Amino acid sequence: MRTILKSLSAVCFFAFFATAAHAQLSVGAGYDYSSMRNVIDAEGYEETAFSSHGFYVGVDYNVRLWKGLGVTPGVQYEFTDALVDDGMKFQEHYLNIPVDINYLFKLTDDFGLGISLVPSFNVGLASELHYDGRTLDVYELAGQFGDALGVKNLYGRFDFMLGVGVSADLFRHFRIKVRYDFGMVNRFSSLKKQYPELLEEVNVHRNRLQVGVAYVF
């Protein structure tokens, strides 16, 4: 029994270092575009959408599992800024945890192309409206309005996205990445739970496009 345990430990030990030998740390930044789509299916309301522009910075750690297949968990800070009305700005800050499941086609020593499927877990750090020199906390306002309706977390901080992306590795140390994420969470889902009659009538989803470059160590 001890011999078997020692053998398994040895296999795990060498497997870990073999995997670590193919691991890569990278830091990156880029342009961030997001679209917030509001669907309220009720009399007097129309579907609306507005776009935000911003940036992201992040760090990730890519582990090659088999040939070109890899998994890359990471951490991102994301900032978005939108002009929603005359003189009114809507700004949001997010902490994102993307898990990039990717496959790299190594074409030469200095060039490769990759494809990715990326689930991303996002948490809103702050959401603000800036108008006439004042700053309003959207989460606080939504909380007050939700309390009046008997709804907790009217505008949810948590978002889950599922993205697809492509990348290009250049000169061993540079990676260009493009990814589009589909928002899977209705940010007003708590309202729908409290008022089932609105179940199919209130939907707010955020989609996102990121284009950036990373340095691979």
UniProtKB/TrEMBL annotation:
Keywords: Signal. The keyword Metal-binding does not apply. It comes from the Bacteria. Residues 24-186 form the Outer membrane protein beta-barrel domain. Residues 1-23 form the signal peptide. It holds the Pfam family OMP_b-brl_2. This is PorT family protein. It comes from Candidatus Merdivivens pullicola.
